[in-house]
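Quick entry, no commentary yet.
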Amino acid sequence: MSGDDPYGNARRIIHIDMDAFYASVEQRDAPHLRGRPVAVGRGEGRGVVAAASYEARRFGVRSAMPSRTALRHCPELVFVPPRFEVYRAVSRQIHAIFSRYTPLIQPLSLDEAYLDVTHCYEDHGSATDIARQIRGAIAEETGLTASAGISYNKFLAKLASDYRKPNGQFVITPAMGPDFAASLRVEQFHGIGPATRARMNKLGIFTGADLRSIPLDVLTRHFGKSAAFYACIARGIDERPVVPDRIRKSIGTETTFESDVSALPQARQILEGLCRKLWAQCAANGISGRTLVLKLKYNDFQITTRTRSNPTVFDREEAMHQQANGLLAGLFPLERPIRLMGVALTGLSEEEEGEKKAQLTLFGES
């Protein structure tokens, strides 16, 4: 590379994110849906939006939103049932394109992945050129568009891919990274959810710059083992490697309450929202599981979990929710109030041969 290479010895990471993937596939295959607000999912009963086209998003329709709410936002919304076998087939096409450029591919879901192209420039050009070539090949071979973020680490590459959506790309160089991270609101940081954001806001932390100004020992008192990661990303530092071919073992979500909960009706209401979100995650990734895990954290920070397995994977949200309710009811009356609840599925359905998935932690913060 030339002496003015903006990356120097830093890694070159690309995050590719398909644009409204499921909905775009449906619009590609059904021309009468093009230009119309489209939601993938079930439009009746307790259905949930698995994906929304950009036309639908302009009305505030989002994935994981209850279908009834989505229709209130957009009465002209067209629901189409998901076709996961088609999405998986298109995903395999896309990953075949990635493999032309690097073997270091870490899938996050059917429609997004990290690529480490640090040592690929001699054959394919700069990381920016590679991202442009990949996006062009995807458009030509699948008829779909993708956005790309290019940076020296995974955290910033993922942020960058959102910056020019849809059908664009954005670069964050090592010289730009620290100031870029400092300028962001903490809720824009991947890995900081609403509960953590609220705790940070109470400490006067609203931006990356605010986060960077807090001593590590203070952050550790409030955020435990996550503190070092937060301190690093606020400075544009992320040393996590791109790890290819790691298979997902579980999928889940959790939430920390603003105030402790001790009543069963309130706990059931929270559980319903968690189950809805979990099912949307399953739909977004074309997977399900056969073992349900319920997690409760009491106000003294003690944790209890309950599990129940089926002979086959869950095929309906209602069945998963009903089983979760049974697990929850078995823990009442509570020994003491709870401050956190989570649900997860393990024993996930296997993807078709050759398709690899990324590791996902058992419980992700909501």
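second:
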Amino acid sequence: MRVDKWLSAVNVVKRRTIATDMLKSGVVYVNGQKAKASKDVKVGDRITIEYLKGPRSYEVLQIPMTKTIPKSQKEEYVKEL
């Protein structure tokens, strides 16, 4: 799954367009490397987002099969580090 789709599907960001803008700005890293929107994520990847207040890191636990998941199931798909 593309990193921009994954970020919006697991409710890390609200919309896919926001995720795409963040990737274009160069503030999203996958396994320590700057990512493009088309970068595929796999189970076990670490995604870091450089927010103004400081970086936040996430670990991919599962890849969702649907467009979005309920917020109550977020912990099954992503772990905040």
